[in-house]
Amino acid sequence: MATTDRMTVAPAVTPRQSITPLIVTIAALALSVCGVAWGEETAEPKEAAATALGPVGKWLGDRGPSDPRPYDDVLLGDGFLDRDFFDWKNGLWLEDGISFGGYVSANWQKGSENSSSHSISESLLLFSWEPLRGPRSAGRLVAGIAHDRTFGRTTTREFADSQGLVETTNDLDTHPKFTFTTLGLLHWEYERRTGPDRGWGLRAGQIYAPSYFGSARYLDDDRRFFMARPLATAAGAQWVGFNDIGLGANAIVWKGPLYVSAAAIDGKANREYPDFKSLADGKLLYLAEVGYESDVDGPNEAAIRLTVSHLDLSDGDNPGAGPGQSLMISGDRIIDNRWAIAGRYSRSFERLSADYRELLSLGFMWHSPFRRSQDIAGFGVFAGEPSDAAFDVESGAEIFYRLKLTQAISIMLDLQYWSRDDASEAGTSAWVWGLRTEFEF
User: Fold this and answer.
1) CA 38 – CA 33 distance, rounded (Å)
2) Do 223 and 378 form a contact (C-beta atoms < 8 A)?
3) What is the Cα–Cα distance from 260 to 255, expressed in whole angstroms?
4) Distance (Å, rounded) from C-alpha 133 to C-alpha 221?
5) Which domain holds residue 52?
6) Which of 80, 110, 251, 367 is the most exposed place for a label (fewest CB within 10 A)?
7) How crowded is residue 88: how many other Cβ atoms within 10 Å of its Cβ?
8) How many domains does the chain divide into?
9) Distance in Å from the first CA to the final CA of the chain
10) 146: in domain
């Protein structure tokens, strides 16, 4: 739930390359990998200890304990938060319907250009209370607040500028201020099962749209896998990062592995708190998604989603473009809980307020590297077509290794390479080294 600054969009000045041929080639490869799962049987629902409800998909949440810890294989032992803490925490969810969690992180990056560096922290707190529990229904209050703080005088946007980049090397940003706090989630959820593998659900309140639309496991907005914004979020959709938090409602219907979801939320809210005055203006972000999910959260999960949007705005970022639309295709495939691939393609039409008008991202994951069951290593590539026509396609690659030190503390080493060849300028290339530490409670 990070805020991002948008670069000024210039009128078209030169013809440039397109990433469409690359998209066709890589998408065909990704779909062929994902496709081996479509014929598999959907996993049977696992019954939770405190309720008869089984899992109904990631779009509403799991029915079992909210925290998978304690882990058995951590490098330095349990640490400050021991097994008794997690047993108590999970018991609180199962017995009283109360779940909480979050993390405090510190992120540092250094670029090859101008010897620039950048540091930023993020704190996230999530809370859920489920007072309504029946044999076929559940209702809960969900809340989430995030706080980002830049250390030193260089914001994420300024650091990217110092490296000559269109998009940012970290999804976290506080530009132009040095702190940013948002109440991204504060809504009521209600779900009802109408059979062993079908049902419907509703959300209403303050909604953070990327939490529920365009999901691609490992490529989502949490920086626990990739740090570069093109690999951490759907940066090619104009509503992500600027018009993605607000008051609204979301309806979901599912049957077996298939689901349909639609939402309307405030498209011009301030992103910091529930903005009732802005909602009254009626300038909304409309979202619709259809998806297929198999073996959800299992060792052979497979998912593919198609998301479309319409942002009904005539002011704000890039007002001359008026309303705009976006298309997003996302998915993931886990193979025997050992290897995984995730991909996302997003494109904006009109209202080109995002740094990229078109973006393709792919991530490849290695679970339990070197026989360390709680560690993960990954490699990602991306290609983005900037909204500013003065720039040609910007591409890059990222590799990371996340080491679990204790039940609560992890450290991630990260290396990125960025490249862009511009017709009217010299272009740019840059290396970015990164380090992320996290305390997760």
Assistant:
1) 10
2) no
3) 9
4) 30
5) 20-440
6) 80
7) 9
8) 1
9) 18
10) yes
Inside any domain, residue 345:
yes
| Residue in 163, 289, 276, 269 with CA at minimum distance from that of residue 216 | 289
Tokens of 89: 């925490």
Q: Is residue 312 part of a domain?
A: yes
Are the C-beta atoms of 70 and 86 separated by less than 8 Å?
yes
Q: Tell me the two tokens of residue 41.
A: 């049987």
Name the phi and psi angles at 269, rounded to 5.
Answer: -65, 160
Cα(359)–Cα(432) distance, rounded to whole angstroms?
Answer: 20
DSSP 8-state assignment for residue 296: T
Q: Please tell me the distance from the alpha carbon of residue 268 to that of residue 353, in angstroms, as a whole number.
A: 13
In a structure prediction context, what are the per-residue pLDDT tens digits for the chain, which is 441 residues long? 543 332 222 323 333 445 654 444 444 444 443 443 333 333 333 333 333 333 334 334 445 556 778 787 788 888 888 889 988 998 888 888 899 999 999 999 999 998 889 999 999 999 999 999 887 888 999 999 999 999 888 999 999 999 999 999 998 888 788 999 999 999 999 999 887 788 999 999 999 999 999 989 899 876 689 999 999 988 888 888 878 999 999 999 999 899 999 999 998 888 888 999 989 888 999 999 999 999 988 899 999 999 999 999 876 655 556 788 999 999 999 999 999 999 999 999 887 778 899 999 999 999 999 988 889 999 999 999 998 888 999 999 999 999 999 999 999 999 999 999 887 777 789 999 999 999 999
- With H, G, I as helix, E, B as strand and everything else as coil, classify residue 91: helix
Instruction: Give the list of residues 6+ apart from residue 421 with CB closer than 8 angstroms, or none.
Output: 392, 427
**CA distances (Å), 237 to each of 223, 250, 252, 311, 332, in order?**
18, 19, 22, 10, 19
CATH number for the domain spanning 275: value is 2.40.160.180
SS3 90: helix
- Preceding amide of 70 cis, omega within 30: yes
CB within 8 Å of 17: residues ≥ 6 apart: 385, 392, 393
What are the structure tokens assigned to 118, written together?
A: 């950048």
* ω into 176 cis (within 30 of 0): yes
**Amino acid letter for position 173:** D
Tokens of 224: 């626990």
SS3 140: strand
The verdict on residue 392 lying in a domain is: yes
Structure tokens at 163: 């490296």
